Amino acid sequence: MLERYLLLTVFFALVSACAPDSVPVDPEEEPKTLADFEFTNYPTLDAPPPIGFCPDIHLASDPDVGNPHTVVNQTNAHYLAYMAGNAYADFVHFAPEMEALGFGNPGEGARLAQCGGDLVNMRLWESRRVSCGRRGCRANINFSPLVDEEVLADWGDCAAEWYLGRFGVGTDAPEGVDGMFEAELIGTAHYGARLEFFSGGEFDVASESFEKGTTQLMWAEHSTLPLVIVAFRGTEFQNGAEDLWADLNIGKDPFYGWGDVHRGFSNALESVMPLLRDKLSEIEGTDVRIWVTGHSLGAALATLFTAQVLHDKEIGAADHNLIGTYTFGSPRVGDEDFRIRFENLAVEHDVSVWRFRNDRDVVTRIPLSFSFDHVGGLAHFEDNTLTLTSMLDTTLARGLVSDLWEHHFMDGYYRQVGNWTAPESSTRYQLNGVDQVYNCIPD
Description:
Elements: H1 2-18, H2 74-86, H3 91-100, H4 108-127, E1 130-133, E2 136-139, E3 146-147, H5 149-155, H6 157-166, E4 171-172, H7 177-186, E5 195-199, E6 202-204, E7 209-211, E8 216-221, E9 227-232, H8 241-248, E10 252-254, E11 260-262, H9 263-270, H10 273-282, E12 289-295, H11 297-315, E13 321-328, H12 336-348, E14 352-358, E15 377-382, E16 385-389, H13 404-408, H14 410-421, E17 429-431, E18 434-436
Parallel strand pairs: 9-12, 12-13, 13-14, 14-15, 16-17
Antiparallel strand pairs: 1-2, 3-4, 5-8, 6-7, 8-9, 10-11, 15-16, 17-18
Helix pairs in contact: 2-14, 3-4, 4-7, 8-9, 9-11
């Protein structure tokens, strides 16, 4: 009898030890710190020289040099390469650099950096709801979800302002409150904001977190120039399978009767189009000029976004002042019918569309199916020369996978563009065998 009593005592003690609401933090667990949640993707490209960006492609002088379909703007190429490359950086680190270049409302870049820092603080606080150790994770009975003045102060002013507006002080924070705040920061368009960083994700109730989508971009409106730059981020391998699936999903979807486009790219753009339409509506009817850029996957998305704006013009749904799209290391996006309609409309509306290819960049060969085409003119860096091939270019890059590191990654493109635009450089692009220089000349 005593033996049975002892066995039952041990059994109930073990059951109690496994109960989620009855065990303190696993003594062998190392508590998380701020370092576990920090944003670690820093801008990798140095800012271009402050010589200004040309909102308009044309020049006040020779109309042939000012033709948007036969020349490339050197100054703009340098800036757009910088933004396409640093679109991989976390907004916390890149927003202040964009503000320093004159983009955003006063203090907006610094504010975004502060909000990102507050999100890190909130993630640390939220992580304390559970205790994780060798026996798994369980509810932390020592955690209080009550958000008082002290908690708000620990989070920071940006997070506190959002929480007070949503829930109020002295309330219990819902599980996943950090994901809700993240969705507010990068999953919501804010009227009047000139500097925004978007992700196509959404708040997932089941996981109580903000699930980032494969599509991320920057909307940057200049503080004094009539200029907006939309820069799409390329493939991030640490982003899990979503980016790779967008690249590899080579089925075709129809695009408004133009022809067919790459399904993975189309789905990725669709995830952020509601946010982009909100921002486009703010500049509807203004003289703000739009420039679009991106690298790799971001280049494909930039192309499709350009197509979307051209389609809106075509059907009279909107008439935004799209001036140019420069992409870097772009894969092929649509079929021949899509290319023909795209390029005809680009010419009709004087939209300058150039895709830069660095030597033997193999990514510009994919998808390998010959049913996919490139759009726009080709600006090809090879042997220290930039050669331009105007619309209807159908050439393929002759590259190997071994060329990927040297020729595809964005630092290589930025170095090439930087060498080309440097005043002391002898590198110039050639058009019909003649060296040309095209820099910004104010009207």
